[in-house]
Amino acid sequence: MYKKILVAFDGSEPSRNALDHAVSIANKWKSELRILSVVPRVMMPVFPDEGFGAAPITAAQDMSDYQEKMKNIYAKSLQEAEEDIKEAFPDLKVSTYLMEGRPSGIIVEEAEKENADLIVIGSRGLGGITGWILGSTSRRVVESCTKPILVVKNPQ
Ligand SMILES: Nc1ncnc2c1ncn2[C@@H]1O[C@H](COP(=O)(O)OP(=O)(O)OP(=O)(O)O)[C@@H](O)[C@H]1O
Ligand SMILES: [Mg+2]
Description:
This protein is of the alpha/beta class. It contains four helices and five strands. It binds adenosine-5'-triphosphate and magnesium ion.
């Protein structure tokens, strides 16, 4: 039924929970599991009256350092997640990939490109704002993807 499952992983507790469900489904259906992490891009602030000129000259370097740091953090938690799964389920076909850009758009695009049969995503992620059932990534993915999707809510 599910030949290929794409799970969206940002390293947060809810996405770990989503990953557990994806692993369990993949084991049951002998599916290939693809774990995707997207490093969001930091934006250079533009001040309406002053444009880029208002940012100090070092800001661009600071931002690219920050971007690199974020990329390393995402890469590390992705790698650790993969290692844990491989150790626990040596027969499972699992692979990971890291991309950069807008998470929701990339998740939807990759699910199409990869021809995934199922997307698994957490209801919430790293974002701290409480009160909403869905975060902005899961909401956008649910709204725009054409694939079957499993949104895993976190235990309360
Ligand atoms: N950068 C990302 N890369 C891969 N998957 C992601 C990423 N961000 C979120 N996700 C997926 O989407 C799920 C929901 O996260 P989402 O970002 O929507 O919630 P949030 O972080 O709580 O809210 P917000 O980002 O709007 O502040 C996560 O559990 C994860 O499965
Ligand atoms: Mg988020």
